[in-house]
Amino acid sequence: MELDIQCEEMSPSRWAELLTTMKSCKTIRLDDCNLSSSNCEDLSSIINTNPTLTELKLNNNELGDAGVEYLCKGLLTPGCRLQKLWLQNCNLTSASCETLRSVLSAQPSLTELHVGDNRLGTAGVKVLCQGMMNPGCKLQKLQLEYCELTADIVEALNAALQSKPTLKELSLSNNTLGDTAVKQLCQGLVEASCNLELLHLENCGITSASCTEISAVLRHKSSLMDLSVGDNKIGDSGLALLCQGLMHPNCKIQKLWLWDCDLTSASCKDLSRLISTKETLTEISLIDNNLRDSGMEMLCQALKDPKSKLQELWVRECGLTTACCKAVSSALSTNKHLKVLHIGENKLGDAGVELLCEGLMHPNCNIQSLWLGNCDLTAGCCATLATAMATKQCLTELDLSYNPLEDEGIRKICEALRKPSCNVQQLILYDILWSSEVDDELRALEESKPEVKIIS
């Protein structure tokens, strides 16, 4: 049984009712429920007495250090079998880390710990690392985003990595580590026996100076499938260094996030080579990089290569215009693998989307999710979009937010949604003005087709 509740204020009577349910739950998720340390005392008892409970998710609650102390009492009991613990943004400090260290040391069932968005600090996480080094710790996933870590944490992290071959996922995003620390971390990862599958280092103060070491991790850790270095100013020179590791035969990367990395069209030659030859690569995010039409045309040429297996491409806010849409359309009509295309916040215009729809309606195209928010679209392109919606049965998600479609455009989209051949299940229409009459039509449409969700 699962208990999954979000954003609900807990009255005493409601809490008492839920406690009875929790006694037989395998999963308990109570994010944003205004819980406090007093609720944790009850939860500790549930952890102790419910041996089937394997996942506890309590994100965005004011539990505090006192609440975690209660939870850990339950976690340290012999009957506890908890595997996944989520405590993101729970107002924890370094004081919680000593009790969590005890759990890591003594509870071999715990394989996931998510404690991001808490002011644990370097001193606190050093204590957690001591717990990880205990032979009884079998941790596989550790999430430490926004924990106010500094470069001083790397020595303790590397020591933990050396002793923890079970660790598969490490997220350190949004901590001020800097190049020197990231270099040391990567050197430790190369030497460590762990088979890391995910490494997230977004917004860590990385420049091109770190990219040789990150590239070495890609070469030496064939287990690494998910790398995110978004929101770091690595630039075209850093990307070229990363590609040396990405293109190595040992590298089996599947997901690569490079959003807001100061990349330009100059990087697209390397990226195109990667997309066209690295058959393991299925998802790449290049959001908020100045690729421009010339860069996008190179990427589209790579997508047409039979060896490309890319399924998701994120090129939102990349300085694209109508001029690249013929190339995008050609790629859509050729690549059978691409399922998700995020191309919003680019000045494609009606003419550009008309071209995209030509590729979208080709039999080879298997797009399921298309994001066109803030693309300077008007009602002028909606008839073509409506045709694509009604004929392309694989298309299940469409985002048209922040475009001045007005009543005329929305009505054309609604016509398509009413057709039995249309399989769009989620239509996103944020910040579009329409009349009360059209609003009534949208609500009636949702009632007549309950499988359709219109988000506005």
From TrEMBL:
The keyword Membrane does not apply. It comes from the Eukaryota. CDD domains: LRR_RI. The keyword Phosphoprotein applies. InterPro entries: Leu-rich_rpt (IPR001611), LRR_dom_sf (IPR032675), LRR_RI_cap (IPR041302), NLRP_innate_immun_reg (IPR050637). GO terms for cellular component: cytoplasm; nucleus. Its main location: cytoplasm. It is found in: Cytoplasm; Nucleus. It holds the Pfam family LRR_RI_capping. Keywords: Acetylation, Cytoplasm, Leucine-rich repeat, Nucleus, Phosphoprotein, Repeat. Ribonuclease inhibitor which inhibits RNASE1, RNASE2 and angiogenin (ANG). May play a role in redox homeostasis. Required to inhibit the cytotoxic tRNA ribonuclease activity of ANG in the cytoplasm in absence of stress. Relocates to the nucleus in response to stress, relieving inhibition of ANG in the cytoplasm, and inhibiting the angiogenic activity of ANG in the nucleus. PANTHER family: NACHT, LRR AND PYD DOMAINS-CONTAINING PROTEIN 12, NACHT, LRR AND PYD DOMAINS-CONTAINING PROTEIN 3. Forms high-affinity heterodimers with RNASE1, ANG and RNASE2. This is Ribonuclease inhibitor. It comes from Polioptila caerulea. The gene is Rnh1.
